[in-house]
Amino acid sequence: MARYLFGRLMGVLVVFFIVSVVIFLLMHAIPGGPYNEDKVPLSAEAKANYMRKYGLDRPLVEQYLLYMGHALRGDFGVPFQSPTETVSGLIARTWPVSASIGGLALLVALPLGLLLGTLAAARQNTWVDYLTSATATLGITVPNFVVAVWLVLLFAVQLKWLPTGGWGQWQHYVMPVAALALAPMALTARYTRTSILEVSRSDYVRTARAKGLSDRQIMVRHVLRNAMIPLLTILAPQIPNLITGTIFIESIFRVPGLGKFFVTSILARDYPMIMALMLLVAVVWSLVYLVTDILYTVVDPRVRLEKSRT
Amino acid sequence: MSTSTLASVQSRQLQELPKQRTLLGDAARRFARNKLAILGLAMVSVLLLTAIFADFIAPYPYDAANPAKALQFPSREHWMGTDEVGRDVYSRIIYGTRISLTVGIGVMAMALLIGIPLGLLAGLAGGAVDYFIMRLVEVFTAVPALMLALLLLSVFGGGLFNVILALGVVAWLDACRLLRAQLLSLRERDFVLAARMLGATNTRIAVRHLLPNAMAPLIVAATIGIPTAIFAEAGLSFLGLGINDPIPSWGKMVGNALSYMRVYWHLGVFPTLAIAITMLGFTFFGDGLRDAFDASMNR
Hints:
The structure holds two protein chains of two kinds. Chain A is an all-alpha fold. Helix content of chain A is about 70%, strand content about 0%. The two termini of chain A are about 15 Å apart. Chain B is built from twelve helices and no strands. Chain B has helices at about 5-15, 25-35, 35-50, 55, 90-125, 125-140, 145-155, 160-185, 190-195, 200-240, 250-255, 265-299. Classes of the chains: A mainly alpha, B mainly alpha. The interface of A and B includes residues 140, 262 and 286 of A.
């Protein structure tokens, strides 16, 4: 286990290194810089001063090494679009907002999806099943920003039940969380249903029934536990997407989260912020995958980590 | 059992078969029985026809601005109203079909063009080549696809061709991974062993036995990737970094509508409906294909 973890962590570090180089080169390849005249009206001297201050006048290799050197010591620099704070400060201020709506969305989506999926499987080929499946297909297929626009038009504009924008009160959470939760809920419902139906047909469930266990016991001890395994693979990729902020939802509902910086940083040529966001996402992804792989061994003792590396 | 009786038994079995059943024939039959798949096929066909004959269907040119008629609600003249510079929304949605389908199919083609050679290399060559390709896949997986696309579009500029390139750069990952996994599992099957015992060369086994068996799931996966690409284009254009004005993209129409739709609802409703319908059509079609092929492979 220790050896496996070490190997995985080394792999992750190599990936980080390559990602950082690629992103660094790409963002410097974007035409224009953070202090061009179209962005901030500065005299040539002032511009040169800024460039020197942030090391932008040095060769790229040196800039990269400087940045990584500071980053390794926890200093991610100053965001050019908001020079009065640090990159770490900006992320610490905005990320909790994104993570809170993302986390809430997951909290809503998981139990609801499990419930709907179990219901659909238990009432297979009845109207309950068909209605759930239709909702699931819609939820998976229709993009969340489309759903968000519909929610605004229906609940904010037409019915006037909810505010169209703003932030701070609980009402502002309802629509963003709903729009974000729909897809993971639909995915959970669909896979719970398939997986329960599949497991129900397996030999060990027949054995459990033959030895006289009640339906309830079979469902909890045999079916649900095994049905969770494929669900892990499906849901894991949803987590980083949700907690690193979703650009579309945040811009439609004007949520002051991290999402908008994915776009504004690129538009403003805000190099330190671009690097920090990329690395943040890469870290969250790697962590989620690592934890998922470890969780596999917990829910399914047949899986051994050393072998799962393909 | 002597060889002659074995041969006669085999020939009798061959004669008894009513008709040769092929993988494709079976899949087509299964597809035709699936109502949702047929609905998907119909929707995709209508979309394709709309894209091809947009010039004849759209009542106005997509870029004909008329400030005097800006922000009109749907009427007899303008079925879906007009936008903030007075362009006919219906016509723009008709022409937008072209953009969405071109991106969807273009990205799928790119995914296969990059994914198949790399997947073949990884699955067949193994060793260091496989290791290198899989690490490359890992690197691309770790970068958020949307942000990479945004960066690439900022470097090279927007426009249809660049959008396809920016999305295609990461779209091949699934095809590559899938093909490699297929090859690794197919390699161990008995029919490959049989071919090898009959003296087939490695190249022949790869071309005649492995690839054809791996193709069906690959094409299915690529088809399922089409709505993803369409969604991604809509997203990029929504953020203002995809298709450039005045070319109509549904995503950009939604993005522009955000500031108006609280009053002018038609600007929000119609482009989002177009995106949703297209995504549903391609998803039904792709899922139908998958089910048709899956079932025949499980037999």
